[in-house]
Amino acid sequence: MTTILPEGGAVSPQPAIVLEFINGETLSSASFSADTNYLHLIWQISCGLADIHSHEIIHRDIKPGNIKIDGEGVVKILDFGLSRNNAAAETRSIIGTPVFMAPELWGDQTIALTPPLMSTHLA
């Protein structure tokens, strides 16, 4: 996941979240070489999702464009704009990028913590 940094300075009296700058490419735009360790990338994404889920958070928009690989090969999960706490995740509207959504998210069901794993396989 991206890191939320402590205070960003006194730029404005308005509260703000300051995130680290990640110099790298998204999974959707990355160029991979023959020696790319895909299993390690998938492992990092899975560990990131497991960490998110351990905090009862559902991302709701896991896709290649929301996964970035920094210059050291470290995966970062981005864009928590649609995320929700698991307890408050019941929804009656389709939220996320349809092509990467798990099939059960198309119905009127309570969202469980497992659908993002479907997105991981599609990414």
UniProtKB/TrEMBL annotation:
Domain Protein kinase positions: 1-123
SUPFAM superfamilies referenced in this protein's UniProt entry, alphabetically: Protein kinase-like (PK-like)
PROSITE patterns in UniProt: PROTEIN_KINASE_DOM
UniProt keyword terms in alphabetical order: ATP-binding, Kinase, Nucleotide-binding, Serine/threonine-protein kinase, Transferase
Keyword Kinase: yes
One GO MF term attached to the UniProt entry: ATP binding
Chain coiled-coil ranges: none
PANTHER family to which the protein is assigned, alphabetical: RIBOSOMAL PROTEIN S6 KINASE (PTHR24351)
Name of protein: Protein kinase
Species this protein is from: Pseudomonas lactis
